[in-house]
Hints:
heterodimer, A: 223 residues, mainly alpha, two-stranded antiparallel sheet, 48% helix, B: 708 residues, alpha/beta, Rossmann fold, Dimethylsulfoxide Reductase, domain 2, 4 domains, 7-stranded mixed β-sheet, 6-stranded mixed beta barrel, 26 helices, 28 strands, globular
Amino acid sequence: MSETENKTENGSMESAGECTAGDIKDDKGLGLGVIFFIVAFVVCFLSGTLLFPKLLYSKKEQPFNFDHALHVSEAGDCDSCHSLREDGSFSGIPKLATCLDCHSEDVLGETEDEAVFVEEYVLKEKEIPWYVYSRQPDCVFFSHAAHTEANGMDCVTCHGHIGESTSLKPYEENRITGYSRDIWGKNIFGIKKHSWDRMKMDDCAACHKKETGHKGYCFQCHK
Amino acid sequence: MKVDRRSFLGLGLGAVAGVAVSPIGIKLTDDSSIWTQNWPWTPVPVDGEVTYESSVCSLCPGSCGISVRKIDDRPVKIEGIADYPVNDGGVCLHGIAGLQYLYDPARVKTPLKKNGDKFEEISWDDAIALVAGKLADLRKTGSPEKFACIADKEQGSVSGLFKRLLKTFGSPNFYTMPSLESYLKVTAAALHGEGKTIAFDLENSDFILSFGAGIIEGWGSPVNCFKANASRKERHAKLYQIEPRLSNTAANADKWIPIKPGTQADLALGLCAVILKNNLFNSTATANFKGGFNKLAAMLQKDYAPSKIADITGVKVSDIEKIATLFAKAKMPIAVFGHGRGDGAQSLKELAAVHTLNCLVGNINKKGGAFVLPKSDYLKFPKESMDSIADAGFAKTKAGRYVNQLIEKVNSSSQPAVEVLFVYNANPCYSLHDPKSVKQAVGKIPFVVSFSSFLDETAKEADIILPSHTFLERLEDVPSGSGLAKSVVGLTKPVIEPVFNTKNPGDTVILIATALEGSIAQSFEWENYDECLENVTSGIWDSLSEDGYVVISDGPGKSAAVNISFLADNPATIQAQGDYELTLIPIDNMRLINAGTAASPFAIKTVSDKVLNGSDIVIEMNPLTAKGLKDKGFATLTTPMGKTRVMVNLNEGMMPGVIGMVEGLGHTFDNKYVSNKGVNVNALIGPVIESGSGLDAAFGIKAKISKA
C-alpha cells in the first residue's frame, strides 16, 4: 500500500469518526429542521389558502346596487328580464331598453341607486356596464334554451338564489383570466356544497354524466 | 440549537410542501390555461342579439339584394337575399366584404377643406356655406354653365338631385363616367332612338355570342350573370367567347375564339355579311330597318367579306362562317358587347355592329334575346322652378358630349371652361385613360367639390370634401341596369348609424340648394333626402319601403324600330395609339374594381400572385412574344404614355402580340391594404376619341417590352 493510499485510508477513518460524532449533533439540527419545515409548511399553506385568493382576485363594485328580490316581486320570474330571444339565444343581462319597459326618466324608487340609474344611464342613454358574475370564457359555448326549455332545468341549479338577494355582492375579477371568481367558486379548493357553487367544466360534465350517462364531447361546448 | 443548512433545507421543503398542498398550483395552472386560450389582446366580438336587415348593395351597378347580419347594432356579415329578383341569394366577393368599407383607413371622417397642400377639418355648416357661396359668386358672373358635375351614373334619385341642382342653377354640364349602362344607352340611341336602353336575356338565350363580355368576370349585373352562366349546361345553351385572351369566361365557354384586339367590330360586321349573304337573317325584322339597309348590305359584302375579315381579325374564314350560321340558326341567339366588365373604353362602331347581329336575326324583344326597354321613369320629380339665369344657362351647349371631352376642353382652354366641379361617386383621376391629364384638368378648375366617402385620387385633388355615407349607412333607391333583363328598383337602407361625421349625398345637395336660396331653393323644398325620396318615388314607395324592391318590368319591351344609318356610313375602325409592335390591353379581374370605389382589402388579398406578386403587377404575354423574357422575370413595359416595371407571366392563353395588364391596381391613396400595389393600367393608355360618337374608344395601346 503506498503512502498516499494509507493517508487516504486514514483520512477516511477520521472522517468516519467525525461523521458519527456529527450524527449526534445532527439530531438537534434535524429537530430544528422539522420545526422550520412545519413552520414554512403552515405559513405557505395558509398563504396559498388565505392570502393567495386575495392577491388573485381584485374586487370591483357594480355601477350601482340592484335589488333582485324587489324586481322579482314587481316584474315576475327571471325570464321577465333575462329572456330567451326568438332564435333561442339567451339575452343575458338586460339592455337599458328592457329596463325602460317599466322604468322611465322619472325616478321610481327612493334609493340612491335609482337616482344613479336614471341620471347616469337613462338620461344619458348609456348602457349600464354591469359586471357579469357568470360570464364564461369566450372559448365556451353554452345554450340556455337547451337546458331550461328543452330539459326543464331551473335557473337556481346553476345561478343559485340570486333572485332572492337584495344587494349585489362585489365582483371579484381574476387578475390572470379576467373572469369572475364565481366560475371557480368561492372556495379556493374548488369544493362545493351546492350545484351553483361552481361553474367549471367538470361541474358541467358531472351533471351531464348524472343526467345523460355521458360527460359530453369536447365540441359540444368548445366550438 | 443551532440554525444550520439543514434548518434552511427544512424551511425550503416546508415551503414547497406548503405551496404544493395549497390550491396555488392547481389554481394557477387552471387560470393560465384559460388565459392562453383567451389571449386578452385578441379582439373578441361582443355578443348580442342577432338580427338581419335587408338592403341593396350599390358597390357596382349589379344592385344585388343583401341581408346584413347584425349583432345588436353592429353589422357583422353580408349575405345575398334568397328570391331577390336580381341575385336570388347569391352575392359576390366585393359584396361580402362590403363591411370593410365602413372602417376603411381612407375614409373621410368629416368635411375637409384644402389649405395649401393639406386638408383641414371644417364643420358641415361652414362647408355648405362655403360651397353655396362659391356657387352664388359664379352665378353672379352670368356663366352658370361653368358649373359641372361628374357622377358615376345617371339613374337614381341622388344623381337626379345633382342634375336638378345643375339645371336650376343654369348648367347642362352633368356628366357620367363610362359604364356598361352608358354604352347600352348610346347603342340604343344609335339604333333605336333616344331615351331607351338595352337588356340581354342571358337566362333564356340558347346561344350567347360574347364579344369579350366577361360574363363571369363582373360584366353586367355580376351575380345574375354567374347564375345565368351556371344554368347554361342544364339549358343546353352555348357560349362562344370572342376575345384575345383565354379569360375565365373564355375558359368556361363552349368555344374560345381568339381575336386581334380592337377588331371585334370588324368580326361582328363580317358575321353580319355572312348572315346576309346566306339569307340567314330574319326578313320580317329587316323589313322594318331604316337608314339604308341595302346600303349596309352592299357595304358589308364589299368590305367585310370573310376572307378580308379573317386577315383583319385573325379568325379563320371557316370559323367566321360557322359562327355566323350557328348564331343565325339558334332559336334564341344573343350577341353581347362590352370587354371584360363592360365599363372600359368602347367604340360605337363595335357596340352597334354587335347589336346589329341581334337586329338581323330578329331577336329584339323576344325571349332569350335583346330587350329594347324604355328609360326607367319611376322617379317623378316635381317641375323645377327656373329663373331667367337658369333658363339661359341650361340652354347652352355642353362643354363636351362625354366626360373625356369635358377634360379635354378644360385642358385646352386658356380661360377656365369650368369654374366649379362636383364629383360624386366617381374617381376620374384614376379610372379614366391618361389620369395625369385628368388631374391636370381638375387642377385647372378653380373650385372642386368631392362627395367621396374615401380620400381617393380625385378627392385628393378637391378643394373641399363633403363626405358621403357609405351604402351601408344611407337610404337610397338603386335601380338595376347594366343589361339586366328585368327592371328592378331596390332600396338601400341604413343598417348602421354613420360611423363618421358624414351625410347622405342627397341631404348635402338639398342643403346646398337651400343655401343658394331663390328659385333653386324653391326646387328643393324637402326637409331632407328621406322625404324627397318618398316624394319622388310616391308611385312605388309603399312597395319599395315594405318589400325592399319593386319589379318594374320583367319581360321584353314593345316593338322597337331599328335604324342602321350609323353603320351604313361605314365608320372607321379605331386603331391603337402608337407605333410599337405589341398591343397592351387592360384585363378585368372579378377580384378587382376599376371604376368607382376601389376593391376592399379582403378582395385584394384574394388576387392571384399571377396578377399581383407582392407589390409587383404581373402582365400576361404569350411565350412566342416573350423573346428572351423569362416567366416571373422583370421587364420594362413602354407605351407612348409612359413606362413601368412589370413582372412577366408567360401564358399561352394570351394571343401572340398582345400584352394583358389587369385593371384596378396601382391606387395611390392612403390605404395600405389597397394602395401602392402594382400600377394603374389607365396611366399607360391614352384616350382615342372615335369621330362621330365622341367616345373614348381606346381598347388598348401599342407597346414594347424589354428586359428590366
